[in-house]
Amino acid sequence: MDLSKLPLSKLPLSKLQEKTPDAPKIEFPCDDYMIKVMGDNCIEFRALVVEVLQQFDERISETSFRENPSKNGRFTSLTVRMRIEQEADLATLDRQLKASPMVKMVL
């Protein structure tokens, strides 16, 4: 698959990092890694994000997130700081989140 034709929102996190070579290098494990997930504004979206992220940081709960709904209320973004053990975990959680049609973007 030619990744150069994909929109940035569909690129794996590892490829996004390659596109920004001047970005600071992250040392793993990282206790304060910020993840933002944007998707449909519904209870199922929040539950999915919690379920996926808890696989990587058991401290994650429904109350761990800062939520920001869109103007029209159709979408919402969930932002959380969490522990990531290794870089490979980022690719895995990115893939798991993007597998759902409710998830529109992962940053």
From TrEMBL:
SUPFAM superfamilies: YbeD/HP0495-like. This is DUF493 domain-containing protein. Belongs to the UPF0250 family. Gene3D superfamilies: 3.30.70.260. PANTHER family: UPF0250 PROTEIN YBED. One of its GO terms (cellular component) is cytosol. It comes from the Bacteria.
